[in-house]
TrEMBL record:
Keywords: NAD. One of its GO terms (biological process) is signal transduction. It comes from Arabis alpina. It comes from the Eukaryota. Pfam families: TIR. The lineage of its organism: Eukaryota, Viridiplantae, Streptophyta, Embryophyta, Tracheophyta. Residues 6-153 form the TIR domain. Coiled coil: none annotated. This is TIR domain-containing protein. InterPro entries: TIR_dom, Toll_tir_struct_dom_sf.
Amino acid sequence: MSSTLPKYDVFLSFRGFDTRRHFTSFLYKELTRKNIRTFKDDQELTSGQRISPELENAIKDSKFAVVVVSVNYAASTWCLDELVKIMDFQKQGSLTVMPIFYGVDPCHVRWQIGVLAEQFKKHEARKDCEKVPVNLLSSGLIQTGSISYQTGQ
């Protein structure tokens, strides 16, 4: 890890459809109110888009990643791609990951059962040539489900 200070204290990873207008917005407001430098991507993304270099840099330039795993988080290839990057930086020792399971049972994440299993089946069935290998995506989610966590309703 470099000796320079990270640009952000926290990188927020979340599924906008599920949590942007309530939980994630409140979390972001509280973090910034406490002078915690927080990155929150507010773009509405088109299906199939890949993570941008700017977003990857924001992850790399953060001390912590708070991953808000919600019901539709795994339905988004973008979120899963972002999660793979987050877990890569965690493995390198440059990022600490803190998952929050919002309306999702952490066991369902860890074992990929219920709605999450259905979402991964849909990813596997996709025919586009840009798809990320599902085993790589599911590995990131399983790792997240194995970290100590907080649950939110």
